[in-house]
Design goal:
By secondary structure, the protein is an alpha/beta fold. The chain has 7 helices and 17 strands. Strand 3, helix 3 and strand 4 form a beta-alpha-beta unit.
Length: 374
């Protein structure tokens, strides 16, 4: 602890007023001294005492306790740091840095790790960890920040940031990696036509990389198709939309001459298949006034092919009418739910309940129909 004594002026009068009064008093005292009047010295002393009283000088004694500066070390433990021997390099760099920092006098060291329990869906937010570690540190006490990372950082320092930042990069200068980038595909396509999907094979590092690479494409987990695509340039792949619903395309590029990870050599996209004309099956479990609303809604679009069946006689209805007197055709349950179900893009169950039970085999057909995009 260090004690300081300081003399300060605590007058409540403005400085301009004090200067004016001091100047006027000096003129009066000087005039009296020059004229050698009686009591000039006493009047000068009284004016000086009054002026000092107006200044209100005070002697202040301060006891000051110096505070240590703070150095922050942020360690990047994101998944990309698990590539190669980066973890070992990180721990070695951290140990060496802490040894050097602890040798500094009046320096407090904080270590913040960005790893376990963090959400990396939005990338590596390294400076968010810096802000957490320095939230209670005044700017005047911040000695500096050291980042131990592989350089994959997806945020930046705030605008008001003014402290020194030092970066220790892990990895090797000659590292290379191949990466497959798939452009944003269209959300849907017409069944029976094709849509363009842009793919780019990037080779980072790895001198002497070949000009072409083999790309494997699978549709809905089926047979593989191989293509030869240029490296470093965008290749437009024409994806055929073979059915309605989700068309899943899987892309995989062969390993490059230098690879850090094969996880970024694969990508998948989903394109919804829609038909030029929508085939709709409307099944009404019993007659009701809303059927006309359904029909008017669906027939208002010329691109909708509507097939409508109404079950006029549910199994729970028994009015003792002989079957030979009923002028009704039988409900084609087997044909609709076993043979023709896949021909429709949309099936609507209207007023269909416990009074219209379906056999389990037909319900399983409906489940498979929905899973395949219906």
């Amino acid at each position: 602890m260090t004690v300081f004594e300081t003399l300060s002026l605590t007058s409540r009068l403005p400085l301009a007023v004090l200067v004016g009064l001091g100047g006027a008093a000096a003129v009066l005292v000087l005039a009296g001294v020059l004229r050698r009047g009686r009591g000039a010295a006493a009047r000068a002393g009284a004016v000086l005492a009054l002026f000092l009283a107006l200044l209100d000088p005070r002697l202040t004694e301060e006891a000051r306790q110096p505070r240590d500066d703070v150095a922050v070390v942020v360690v990047d433990d994101s998944p990309s740091q698990a590539i190669g021997d980066r973890r070992r390099q990180t721990e070695a760099a951290l140990a060496a840095l802490l040894d050097r920092l602890k040798a500094q006098e009046r320096l407090s060291v904080r270590v913040e790790r960005l790893g376990a329990g963090e959400n990396f869906d939005d990338g590596t937010r390294l400076f968010a960890a810096v802000r957490r570690a320095t939230a209670d540190v005044p700017r005047g006490r911040l000695g500096g920040v050291a980042l131990i990372t592989d350089g994959q950082v997806h945020d930046g320092p705030p605008r008001e940031w003014g402290g020194p930042v030092h970066v220790l990069l892990t990895g090797r200068p000659d590292e290379g990696d191949r990466r497959l980038v798939v452009g944003r595909p269209p959300g849907y396509g017409i069944v029976g036509k094709s849509v363009p999907v842009a793919v780019t094979v990037e080779d980072r590092g790895g001198d002497g990389a070949p000009a072409n690479a083999v790309l494997t494409v699978r549709r809905d987990g089926g047979a593989a198709r191989t293509l030869t695509v240029p490296v470093g340039r965008t290749y437009v792949f024409q994806a055929d939309i073979s059915h309605g619903g989700a068309n899943v395309l899987e892309f995989e590029v062969e390993p490059g001459p230098a690879e850090l990870s094969l996880a970024n050599n694969r990508a998948a996209v989903t394109i919804g298949g829609v038909r030029d004309r929508l085939k709709v099956l409307l099944l009404s479990g019993r007659p009701h006034p809303g059927e006309r609303t359904w029909r008017n809604l669906l027939k208002a679009d010329a691109n909708v092919d509507l097939v409508h069946f109404t079950i006029l006689r549910p199994i729970d209805k028994d009015d003792f009418t002989p079957l030979n007197e009923l002028a009704l055709i039988a409900f084609p349950m087997r044909e609709l739910f076993e043979e023709k179900l896949g021909d429709f893009d949309l099936v609507i169950f209207d007023r269909f309940g416990v009074h219209n039970p379906l056999p389990d085999a037909y319900l399983e057909n409906v489940v498979r129909y929905v899973r395949k995009g219906g």
